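Subject: COMM domain-containing protein 6

B.,
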Amino acid sequence: AANKINLIPQDFFAELCEQIIHHLNHKIPGVNTAELCQRIQTSGIEIDIGDLAKIANILSFLFSTAARNNLSTDELVTTLGSAVSTLPKHALQVIRHVWNEQGKSITASEDARNVATMGQFVDMKWKLGVAMSSDTCRSLKYPYVTVTLTVADPSGQITDKSFEMTIPQFKNFFRQFKEIASVLETV
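Prediction pasted inline below.
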């Protein structure tokens, strides 16, 4: 992972670190590595989204462990310097700066950690479509609903999950959401 970190420009690496800190502080539901990866690739850097996700997981583990152990900036950098000699110098500088500025704000409450381990619902989008025809059938005229759920997994990676439903399935789905909303209002 250290050689992949070397590919990431310092400003993008700093943005990744700050997003992770915000996620650990529960200010944002997760780190959108897909969007960040696309921006890095647009700037001319060849990096795979899987590699960026691994780097985000490593940094998340690093910052949460440092917060749990109440490490100062110097303790963190010293530990990193002795344990990871292959970490690029610019990455150590960014980690030092981000931890010095925002590291102490990470909350380590038990409730926050339990919520983070379950993942989090971020957004839902839906659209209505009609299949007009296909290679095997000339006239379908079959309506369907495509639902895209945006979720942040426990490590903070934001992903989209899409599925299609028939109109009766969507009506049942909608009815269940209304039941959930009415139960939540009573709490």
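The two ends are 45 Å apart (CA to CA).

T.
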